[in-house]
Each structure stands twice: as C-alpha cells, then as structure tokens.
Design brief:
7 strands, 7-stranded parallel sheet, alpha/beta, 7 helices
C-alpha cells in the first residue's frame, strides 16, 4: 500500500492512534465531548508546521495533522479527510466539534474537503490559500470556485495578509456562512502569529 493510501486507510478505519498530543491520524479513542481540528500545513513546512500544530493542541483541541508531501494528490487527500470525519460523526462526534484548517495548499485541500462533506455544522479556516492570478495554485482556486463552491456548506473563514483574497470562492459558496479577514504582522509559520487567534475565535464561536 502506498503512503497516501495508507493515510486514507487509517483515516477511514479511525484506528491509527499514535498516542501523541498531535495525532498523525484520527485517534482510536474518540470522545464526542472533545473538539477536533484537522490541521493541513503547507507541504515542506516541516518544523514550522509541527510548532503550529502543537500550539493549537494547547488550546483545548485535539489536533490531527496528517503528514503530506508534494507528491500526494489533493483530491484523494481531501477524500481521505472526508472519510475520517464521516466515521467520527458516525461515532457520535457532533459536527460543531469538528473543524479543518489549512495553510496554502493545505487550505485548498480544506476547500475540497468542504465540498465533499457538505455539512453545515463543520467549521473551516483557510490561511493564504488563494494566490494571485498566474501564480502556483491560482488555477486550482479558479477550478474550486467554478466546480465545487456552489455545493459547499458549513462555516468558512478566509485569512490572508492583505493580498490573495478568496473572494471568488466565498461569493460562489452561497450555501455556506463565509467571512474573510486581513491579518497583518507575523509570519504565517510563526505559532504566535495573529491569525492563530482568528482561527480559534472562528472554530470556537
């Protein structure tokens, strides 16, 4: 089984608990009273992604950060996330106790998962997910806006640093509750960056 298939398999079975505060897969022991956050960092972020996930796990959240590489297919990865969340819902976790957040490409995968789940109770946060036209990732956002946005449901917050608005997606996600904020100061990779507070306020609101 290849690496991506292994991740999807673990997510689908909800049986790959690694016993750490930040889980690499959905925990074996699910508590419906706990709030769960899937965190999808930018590929190649390494230690920075780990520090952010650890910071978020200290905010009364169970953080699930599935490892991902540039070779992983975004659509299949989003499908794996969807299957894991479906199993969590089936085991009693309410939708308003589940959130997905992603940075850069992780944010674009978050949007794909949102379109697959179509659950109005789940919260989503995307950070710097919508690059300027004619830059890497821009075509993906245009495709998501054209093909996926109209079926999205849930609560979607877009955060960016003044450039790269996700307005195209937000406008077409008419069935979702959407908001966009501009946060200045601090690098995205900084666990103390202001966007952390915006993310927590949204998913706990």
């Amino acid at each position: 089984m290849n690496r991506l298939a292994t991740i999807a398999f673990c997510l689908a079975l909800v049986a790959c608990d690694d016993g750490r505060t930040v889980h690499s897969d959905v925990p074996r022991n699910i508590d419906p009273a706990v709030e769960y956050l899937f965190f999808l960092g930018e590929t190649g972020s390494g230690d920075a992604e780990k520090r952010i996930a650890e910071t978020l796990s200290g905010k009364a959240l169970q953080v699930i950060a599935p490892p991902r590489t540039a070779a992983d297919d975004p659509d299949l990865f989003a499908l794996g996330i969807k299957e894991g969340i479906r199993q969590m819902l089936a085991r009693g976790v309410p939708g308003n106790h589940i959130a997905i957040a992603g940075i850069g490409e992780g944010g674009r995968i978050t949007l794909l998962a949102m379109a697959l789940l179509r659950d109005p109770a789940i919260s989503y946060v995307i950070i710097d997910a919508c690059p300027a036209p004619d830059t890497p990732g821009a075509k993906t956002i245009e495709s998501i806006a054209a093909i996926n946005a109209h079926v999205m449901e849930g609560r979607l917050l877009s955060i960016h640093a003044g450039q790269g608005s996700c307005g195209l997606v937000l406008e077409r996600a008419s069935a979702a509750e959407t908001w966009e904020v501009v946060v200045e100061g601090g690098r995205v990779s900084d666990p103390a960056a202001p966007w952390i507070g915006e993310l927590l306020g949204w998913i706990k609101g």
